[in-house]
UniProtKB/TrEMBL annotation:
<feature type="domain" description="Response regulatory">
    <location>
        <begin position="22"/>
        <end position="140"/>
    </location>
</feature>
<keyword id="KW-0804">Transcription</keyword>
<keyword id="KW-0597">Phosphoprotein</keyword>
<protein>
    <submittedName>
        <fullName>Response regulator transcription factor</fullName>
    </submittedName>
</protein>
<keyword id="KW-0238">DNA-binding</keyword>
<dbReference type="InterPro" id="IPR039420">
    <property type="entry name" value="WalR-like"/>
</dbReference>
<dbReference type="InterPro" id="IPR058245">
    <property type="entry name" value="NreC/VraR/RcsB-like_REC"/>
</dbReference>
<keyword id="KW-0805">Transcription regulation</keyword>
<dbReference type="Pfam" id="PF00072">
    <property type="entry name" value="Response_reg"/>
</dbReference>
<dbReference type="Pfam" id="PF00196">
    <property type="entry name" value="GerE"/>
</dbReference>
<dbReference type="GO" id="GO:0000160">
    <property type="term" value="P:phosphorelay signal transduction system"/>
</dbReference>
<dbReference type="GO" id="GO:0003677">
    <property type="term" value="F:DNA binding"/>
</dbReference>
<feature type="modified residue" description="4-aspartylphosphate">
    <location>
        <position position="73"/>
    </location>
</feature>
<dbReference type="InterPro" id="IPR000792">
    <property type="entry name" value="Tscrpt_reg_LuxR_C"/>
</dbReference>
<dbReference type="InterPro" id="IPR016032">
    <property type="entry name" value="Sig_transdc_resp-reg_C-effctor"/>
</dbReference>
<dbReference type="InterPro" id="IPR011006">
    <property type="entry name" value="CheY-like_superfamily"/>
</dbReference>
<dbReference type="InterPro" id="IPR001789">
    <property type="entry name" value="Sig_transdc_resp-reg_receiver"/>
</dbReference>
Length: 243
């Protein structure tokens, strides 16, 4: 006779918990890493799979620990976070690894270099705990974390600075886009997600997502972060206007 609890066991066995986001923490300050590790481990959908004190260690651990996402400090000894991000983005074996960089905001103008290197977004280092967890989820899901307002102004200021190269000139810029696609690109650059873009333009979220994907294809952009760079470098979006 089949034990009465077997059917329940079968149902339990068939249930699969959502996969955890495998997070690697890269920061040269031990206390910062420890604090972030405690926070990440407190989330049911995340786990810390490694901690690195240098960019070189971050690259090595990204390969060995099979991380999904790296919370990457910019200023680290040996290899800094920008170069580490560039190495990771160029490695085909690490194609699925996302990088979320940290910045001191007002003093750290290397953020655009990090985005060009392959980062999917960035956070201010004094970010609130809940915001860090939400940011990890957002970037791990394939979205770029680019907030409107101060973030947009920082991006624009750095892009206008001396020595700024042009990503848009390499892709042809927004001239190849339709009018609707230019509208969508403008909203992406101002930090709106697909649902917000859909609401703003009277579209369905799926249509908004399709537009974003087509824009990325036409511009040869890897992600939304590069779309923001194109929008500012081309002058499609002006700092302080609508942001």
């Amino acid at each position: 006779m089949t034990p009465p609890h077997d059917s329940q066991s079968a149902r339990t066995a068939s249930y699969e918990a959502p996969p955890s986001i495998r997070v690697l923490l890269a920061d040269d300050q031990t206390l910062v890493r420890a604090s972030f590790a405690m926070l990440v481990e407190s989330a049911r959908d995340m786990e810390v799979v490694g901690q690195a004190a240098t960019g070189r260690e971050a690259v090595e651990l990204a390969r060995s620990a099979r991380a999904d996402l790296i919370v990457m400090d910019i200023r680290m000894p040996d290899v800094d976070g920008i170069e580490a991000t560039r190495i990771i983005a160029a490695d085909e074996d690490l194609a699925g690894v996302k990088v979320l960089v940290l910045t001191t905001y007002d003093t750290d103008e290397h953020i655009i270099e990090a985005l060009r290197a392959g980062a999917s977004g960035f956070l201010v280092k004094d970010v609130k705990p809940a915001e860090l967890l939400d940011a990890i989820r957002t970037v791990a899901a394939g979205e770029s974390l680019l907030s409107p307002g101060p973030t947009a102004r920082l991006i624009a200021r750095v892009l206008r600075g001396p020595g700024a190269d042009t990503f848009s000139s390499a892709t042809g810029g927004p001239d190849c886009l339709s009018e609707r696609e230019r509208q969508v690109l403008t909203l992406v650059a101002r930090g709106l997600n697909n649902t917000e873009i859909a609401d703003a333009l009277g579209l369905s979220p799926l249509t908004a997502k399709t537009h974003v994907s087509r824009i990325m294809g036409k511009l040869g952009a890897r992600d939304r972060a590069q779309l923001v760079i194109v929008a500012y470098e081309s002058g499609l979006v002006t700092p302080g206007v609508g942001g």
